[in-house]
Design goal:
The chain has helices spanning 28-38, 41-57, 65-89, 91-96, 112-133, 136-157, 164-172, 175-184, 189-212, 214-220, 225-229, 231-249, 251-254, 260-282, 286-317. The protein is mainly alpha-helical.
Amino acid sequence: MTAPRALSPLPPPAAVPGPASPAPSTSLPSRVRQYYALTKPRVVQLIVFCAAIGMLLATPSWPEWRLVLPAVAGIWLVAAAAAAFNCLVEQRIDSRMARTAWRPTANGQLTPGQALVFSAILCAAGSALLWFAVNPLTMWLTFATFIGYAVVYTVVLKPMTPQNIVIGGASGAMPPVLGWAAIRGEVGPEALILCLIIFLWTPPHFWALALYRAEDYRRSGLPMLPVTHGFEFTRLHVFLYTLVLFAATLLPFISGMSGPIYLAAAIVLGVMFCGYAWRLWRGYSDALARRTFRFSIVHLSLLFAALLLDHYLGPLIA
């Protein structure tokens, strides 16, 4: 077992030299890869996956592809725009952290102006696609999610409070609502239940990462929970949130939104997540924190996949 590292108080921000200018001879494929990296592909893939689940659950049969395709594309574009804007705003912070120093804005491969124009183009294209090919409600909800993540969370909350990920998690929990609105043209209680699940999932997911990256966050000057309140406090809160999350994951079954297939998956996955969090609380190690973080992604993916499986197979075996 690795004992938690003692963290010293936050130092005054160190003088960090500005990023080097990008090499003028950068090839087109390399430049495309740099812009693509700005979109945080893995994060956006999970966002689009959750939005697609919302679309599929919004109708008892298969939704119309004329809505699904532009909705997926539009949500991807706006989510990618938010990710690029996040990289722009956190350029200096990213350059101080081992986990993010490779990002094109942090290492100087792309200038702030290039990142800003790229983000604006993606956001405008995605918003236009949602407005004209899906419906205005989905466009406004998606744009509000962009503002919530790129501005409220990144600019205001993240550098201000250790509860940043809790409050800012509301925007990250919106994808199922966006998918539901794309098909139904409204926001139903079922979509809000899915939103609640992701909202409660976000803190234990992110704090598990923050635990083994605490030194990174200390150097960056960001007030993340392990830095401001210590390891033991953070580990306890990871465990408590997994308990509340477990209860919330039962709501689709309790409300009649899903059946026994989903219930069985929710119980198994919930017990496993709580087990990881319990072990993390009672006996910390960086390796366990990494496994907990990775399992949290598996947990959400399989939970929503089970919801989808139950949606289509449940009526056949009832």
